[in-house]
Design a protein that fits this description.
Its cofactor is (6R)-5,10-methylene-5,6,7,8-tetrahydrofolate; FAD. It is built from 18 helices and five strands. By secondary structure, it is α/β, with parallel strands linked by helices.
Length: about 425
């Protein structure tokens, strides 16, 4: 039997789980007696696609700085690298005596391919690699139909999810052994070191005080009625177990939104083609107009429909948009302007702090009618009626489009009735069997 080397370490590789408490991979890395180093890699395959003042990179950097501070209190520090993960791991294998590597599973296509390659590399070098469930309550293979196939309609998926769900089985691990971490001579690089600059956009803390009134307040963008939790779940600054434990008895509606998140994750996992394709292939014949000037007006919030413009301006300024308004703006782009959902999805991916490939893709395809369990193609939001229902006093509109009553404000770029009829005709023709 091979004698254990004195300087053998385990590595807990953080990715979208930027916390030390209740982190499954970290808890497992700490179990076997080796000292544990905590690693984060700024993945240039992802960073190279981003603007240099991307607010999400600033947020990640802030979280890493916080984690490094916590680790230094335990005589360690955060190991931060920048580059291609595969090459970084080759360097780490040369530089450290590594016993085990632990990380939490990610279900997006790029991530699964990356993790597979890294695992193979580690195994070739006789390093044990362990992937753990952490960012979901149920993984894609854990909630399936009786015949073993994935659900493509939300309500049956949700019912099965709730059937499996046992709050007694949720365990939250908060204790960390202070002497269990490896001494790391490393420091968190500055944003400038990785080629970025600090964003003006600040990420707000999440607020679960809204949960008890969530059903009443969730649809009104001028009201403080949503939790701002999505960005924190996206980057794992809080564990999903901790959140579910706190909210499951307070609001079935709020819990349902968390189930939607896992529903779209398993759709993306089982049907990765949806990244670039319609889930419903019968919609492939739709002839999108794809007018670039009209798309630009939508992006800037200059459509002449105040609720649409308010949403787009909020997004561009803050990296956030209220969920009800996301539906309105998405429907407007796809139905009123007949612009391909992929264009809108890409703009949201660029701007949203809480951008999550599975949810963004799933919700855009829902709005366009092309997705699983989507809104029917003939459902076309009337932006004016949406204002009457959800921003009747125009408080949200006044905040983001203060000039909406001035002569300088543009007339609606398209007539609702005409646009609706045009959309219905285009869809009918496009999805003809």
């Amino acid at each position: 039997m091979c004698k254990k080397k004195m300087n053998m370490i385990n590595i807990a590789w953080l990715r979208r789980d930027l916390r030390l408490t209740d982190n499954t991979a970290l808890q497992h890395a700490l179990k076997n007696g080796n000292k544990t180093a905590v690693l984060f890699i700024f993945d240039t395959n992802i960073l190279d696609e981003l603007d240099k003042d991307d607010a999400r990179v600033t947020f990640i950097h802030q979280q890493l700085t916080k984690i490094d501070r916590q680790l230094r209190e335990m005589n360690s520090g955060l190991l931060v690298k920048t580059g291609d993960p595969f090459k970084i791991w080759q360097e780490l294998i040369s530089g450290f005596e590594i016993s085990e590597v632990h990380f939490n599973r990610d279900y997006e296509p790029y991530a699964t391919k990356r993790d597979e390659q890294v695992q193979q590399l580690l195994q070739k070098n006789n390093i044990s690699a362990f992937a753990h469930k952490d960012q979901v309550i149920f993984e894609p293979h854990e909630v399936l139909k009786a015949d073993g196939t994935p659900y493509t309609v939300f309500t049956p998926y949700k019912n099965k999810w709730l059937e499996h769900f046992n709050p007694q089985q949720i365990k939250i691990e908060e204790k960390l052994k202070k002497n269990a971490f490896a001494a790391i001579e490393s420091s968190v690089p500055t944003l400038e070191d990785i080629g970025f600059q600090k964003s003006d956009i600040e990420v707000e803390d999440y607020d679960l005080s809204v949960v008890k009134n969530y059903r009443k307040t969730r649809n009104f963008p001028a009201v403080h009625g949503t939790s701002n939790l999505s960005v924190h779940l996206r980057f794992g600054t809080v564990s999903i177990r901790q959140i579910v434990q706190q909210v499951y008895q307070q609001s079935p509606d709020f819990l349902s939104e968390l189930v939607w998140r896992e529903f779209f994750m398993q759709i993306l996992f089982h049907f990765p083609r949806v990244v670039n394709e319609n889930f419903r292939t019968k919609y492939n014949g739709i002839q999108w107009r794809n007018n670039e000037k009209e798309f630009e007006r939508w992006c800037k919030g200059e459509t002449g429909y105040p609720i649409v413009d308010a949403g787009m301006r909020e997004l561009n300024k803050t990296g956030y948009m209220h969920n009800r308004v996301r539906m309105i703006t998405a429907s407007f782009l796809c139905k009123h302007l007949l612009i391909d959902w992929r264009w809108g999805e890409a703009w949201f991916a660029k701007k949203l702090l809480d951008f999550e490939l599975s949810s963004n893709n799933g919700n855009w395809q829902w709005a366009a009618g092309t997705g699983c369990d989507a809104a029917p193609y003939f459902r076309v939001f009337n932006p004016t009626e949406q204002v009457k229902k959800f921003d009747n006093e125009m408080l949200y509109i006044k905040k983001w489009v203060p000039e909406f009553q001035d002569l300088s404000y543009p007339a609606p770029m398209v007539d609702h009735k005409m646009a609706r009829n045009r959309a219905l005709e285009t869809y009918k023709k496009g999805i003809a069997e």
